[in-house]
Specification:
alpha+beta
């Protein structure tokens, strides 16, 4: 059975760092190496920053970060009740046409082992990320 840590986070940019630190501490506890911890921190930062910048939740509303701590992995679920977006409209960026912005989901998918994004206009967004501890 996995241990779970849940955080209710204000929709303010200054709390993204706090979430990063909490999740990296859990990843360290499980036994991830420094490179994997950095990947997890960047992925979590991208997901939280997307909520703060794009979900249209005001700074008084909260979003949730839940971390399931397992023997061989960390599962991170980040959910908001913001405006959401139409996943059918999402296009994977082309490497030869990289532009500033719009790379959050692409970066998260590149850094984590499993990523599932569910979003619906008017109903918010749910991002589940999984990273496995690799044997050395």
């Amino acid at each position: 059975m996995a241990d779970t840590l849940k955080l209710m986070v204000p929709g303010k940019p200054e709390y993204v760092r706090t979430v990063r630190l909490a999740v990296s501490s859990l990843a360290n506890k499980i036994g991830f190496d420094i490179e994997a911890i950095e990947d997890i921190k960047v992925a979590v930062s991208e997901a939280c920053s997307n909520i703060v910048c794009h979900s249209d939740i005001d700074s008084d509303r909260l979003y949730q970060v839940a971390c399931n701590i397992c023997d061989d992995r960390i599962e991170i679920l980040i959910e908001d009740e913001g405006v959401g977006f139409d996943m059918d409209m999402y296009e994977e960026p082309s490497p030869d046409q990289i532009k500033e912005g719009g790379l959050g989901v692409f970066i998260i998918r590149a850094l984590m082992d499993e990523v599932n994004v569910r979003s619906e206009v008017g109903s918010g967004t749910r991002i589940k990320m999984v990273k496995y501890v690799t044997a050395e």
